[in-house]
Design goal:
WH_DNA-bd_sf, 3-stranded antiparallel sheet, Arc Repressor Mutant, subunit A, transcription
Length: 177
């Protein structure tokens, strides 16, 4: 290996290590935040993610839910079945292809999403609190543009358009931080 290749290799090892470690640390913060928030409704992160996706995107194929929800199809099915038993979503088969299943949020499911949104407090969020020094220094919260670029490069535009779907439906106009 020549010097240029060695430098490139070393840079890639450092990049890989840093990415793995920062991603893991960020996920631990998100996981703690998210699970603490939704546990009052008796939900898990996956269950809430499914409800949120159905709330924001309407009727969805289970396969799309697994792709956009970053979970295996069997995980999406199992958690969706629990939500169906609780009355928060319902299943529907495609009329032309009975192998295709859709989920759709029910009124009870919408209500639980909205109640959780009402309960969310920015000042209790690890992610929001941890971003405050950056916001104070630069005037806005981190946008994760480089990380977004990496995700877009791997998963593609369709995935990113799902992620970037406006969440205005979640914003409570009567609520302030």
């Amino acid at each position: 290996m020549n010097e240029l290749e060695q430098n490139s290799y070393a840079e890639n090892v450092r990049f890989r290590h840093r990415t793995y470690q920062i991603s893991k640390a960020l996920w631990k913060m998100v996981e703690k935040d998210w699970s603490t928030w939704v546990e009052s409704a008796g939900l898990t992160i996956n269950e809430h993610h499914i409800l949120l996706s159905a709330y924001l995107h309407g009727k969805m194929k289970l396969t799309d839910l697994s792709i956009y929800g970053m979970m295996h199809v069997s995980t999406a099915v199992n958690y969706s079945r629990k939500l169906e038993l609780a009355g928060f979503i319902h299943f529907e088969k495609d009329t032309h292809d009975k192998r295709v299943n859709y989920i759709e949020i029910t009124e009870a499911g919408k209500k639980i999403v909205e109640e959780l949104e009402d309960k969310w407090q920015a000042e209790e969020s690890l992610i929001v609190k941890s971003a405050m020094p950056i916001e104070q220094l630069f005037g806005n919260k981190p946008r994760f543009m480089e990380a977004t670029g990496v995700v877009r490069s791997y998963y593609g535009e369709e995935f990113m358009s799902h992620i970037e779907t406006p969440c205005d439906a979640l914003i409570r106009t009567d609520k302030k931080d």
